[in-house]
Design a protein that fits this description.
This protein is α/β, with parallel strands linked by helices. Among the domains are: 88-156, Ubiquitin-like (UB roll) (Roll), CATH 3.10.20.310; 161-297, Cell division protein FtsQ/DivIB (Rossmann fold, 3-Layer(aba) Sandwich). It has 9 helices and 12 strands. The strands form 2 sheets. It has a 9-stranded mixed sheet with strand order 6-5-4-7-8-9-10-11-12. A 3-stranded mixed sheet has the order 1-3-2. The longest helix is centred in the N-terminal third of the chain and has 26 residues, at 41-66.
């Protein structure tokens, strides 16, 4: 006989359904008691680099402030210079191109090395700056050609005018840069400019005056007046007072009067062109007396 207890099965199911089930998202073991901290790998690398770089930077800063680095560099440089002559890297030839007026001794002094010196003694950048500080030199290049040569290239300034100031005459270029105050005999044919700011404006003035070659060839000197305008002194002729503005128009008018009326062939002391469309002429004493006599007879 089989005995079937129908009441046992529901009670057993109730216990099974009521038992706590393990959660999949709940941490188990020791890790369940403390939250995990996840640090990105990039942040870890930055932290490691900072820990290494900061003490290194402090050390380098201390070495720099204490002068240890400079002493070390100086010692290495001395040792290199001591060894270089044994390797034959010395200056045996200095080649200079583009020089016409610049003195050889001035270039040698600015270069800073002589034949027999170690080639490492030459700093091309510093040597170039010293050479470009010479009056005649507009630009320069300096380079070492191993094993024995130093190459120097020079572009010189072009003489443009003689600047007279405080009893001293100097040579200037078109931009008004001072070239030299020595050995100026060969430049006597250049125009003379007078005035504190005359060199800065002489280039613009000559560009205008050269439009009339016949008059331009007769210019003896140009004086800057009150830093505003020019007085032109002509050879064997009058002083021409140019206006502050429209210099070209006034100069063209003078050229026309000189050609058509032979104005500059008369006994004229000064020609005043400062007022537009108006000409004032100052005659010499002989011409003035003659004019007064003719006036009385008429």
């Amino acid at each position: 006989m089989t005995f079937n207890d129908s009441s046992a099965t529901p009670r057993s199911r109730k216990r099974t359904s009521g038992a706590p089930r393990p959660s999949r998202n709940r941490p188990t073991g020791r890790r369940s008691r403390a939250a995990r901290i996840i640090v990105p790998k990039r942040l870890k690398r930055v932290a490691v680099i900072g820990l290494v770089a900061f003490p290194l930077a402090l050390g380098l800063h201390w070495l720099y402030r204490s002068g240890t680095v400079e002493d070390l560099v100086a010692s290495v440089e001395i040792e290199i210079r001591r060894l270089i002559p044994w390797n034959g890297l010395t200056v045996r030839e200095i080649v200079v191109t583009g020089r016409r007026h610049t003195a050889d001794e001035d270039i040698a002094a600015a270069l800073g090395v002589r034949q027999g010196d170690p080639l490492s003694d030459l700093d091309p950048r510093e040597a170039r700056e010293r050479i470009e500080a010479l009056g005649w030199v507009r630009s320069a290049s300096v380079r070492r050609q191993f094993p024995h040569a130093v190459l120097v290239g020079i572009v010189e300034r072009r003489p443009f005018a003689l600047w007279q100031r405080k009893g001293r005459v100097s040579l200037v270029d078109r931009d008004g840069e001072l070239i030299s105050s020595r050995d100026l005999e060969q430049f006597n044919r250049l125009p003379i400019v007078v005035g504190e700011d005359a060199p800065r404006h002489v280039g613009d003035l000559v560009a205008v005056l050269a439009r009339q070659p016949a008059l331009f060839g007769r210019i003896e000197s140009a004086t800057r007046v009150s830093e505003r305008r020019w007085d032109i002194r002509l050879q064997g002729g009058p002083t021409v007072r140019l206006p502050e503005e429209d210099v070209a128009g006034a100069w063209d008018l003078l050229a026309a009067l000189a050609t058509e009326h032979r104005l500059l062939e008369r006994d004229v002391i000064a020609v005043d062109l400062r007022v537009k469309d108006r000409l004032a002429v100052r005659l010499g004493s002989a011409s003035a007396v003659k004019r007064r006599g003719e006036g009385r007879s008429t």
